[in-house]
Amino acid sequence: MTPSVAGGLALALGSAAALDWGFLAQHGAAASLPPLGLRRPLRAARLLLGSRRWLAGFLVGIGGWALYVAALRLAPLSLAQAASAGGVGLLAVLVERTTGVRLARREWTGVGLAVAGTAVLAVSLAGGASASRRAEPVAVVLWVAGSLAVAGLATRRPAAGAGFGLAAGILYAAGDVATKAAVGGAAGFVPAVLACHGLGFVALQLGFQRGGALATAGVATLLTNGVPIAAGMAVFGEGVPAGTLGVLRVLSFVIVVAGAAALARPEPA
What we know:
This protein is mostly helical and 269 residues long. The chain has one domain.
């Protein structure tokens, strides 16, 4: 593993920690506010910005996103996402330590899987990491357009917090794919980055008022980390090493996504 890739993975882990804390702080603040809606966006913005806790979580989350952009300049998209997924266990720990919610055994199993998957990823990097190639613009456009369509379908049940978490995760993932294309030299995708992240932000805030932290931020984190791994291979040509190390690389992706899935608590009836 080259020093630049190692630095990129370290930045990805730092980004995950910042984003997880930011999500949790925003969830706690948004859940205590009057109902937010798309029909009165200025009122919703005033309510959110008027909460110091929400604003602190938002600013920390922005810092986490900046770290992620820096990570993408150093490491392939799929590896950066796998490292970020390893940090999803921190969200569960923060939920239990700061909110008093006792996590189920299945959720702690998810924490263990996330950590184990990151360890397997570290072992697989002994054979080096495949560099990303510059994606074809048409492929990126199709990926983002498909993500927008799926996210729209996910919000057809507005009462379900997990539905908005699903939409947020898909939109943030599409934004990450566009970010990778933009930092790779395709500056024309900057508007797509802003649009996808903006829509993901709105979906997540609406989900925070309809579900728990793990049912919204957990589902969003699962998809934000998992979907770009597939995009890294399908859109950016990020391959895996041959032999045992390749098997471990793929296994690490599977483990970290399974760990994130276990942390996404089902919606209450």
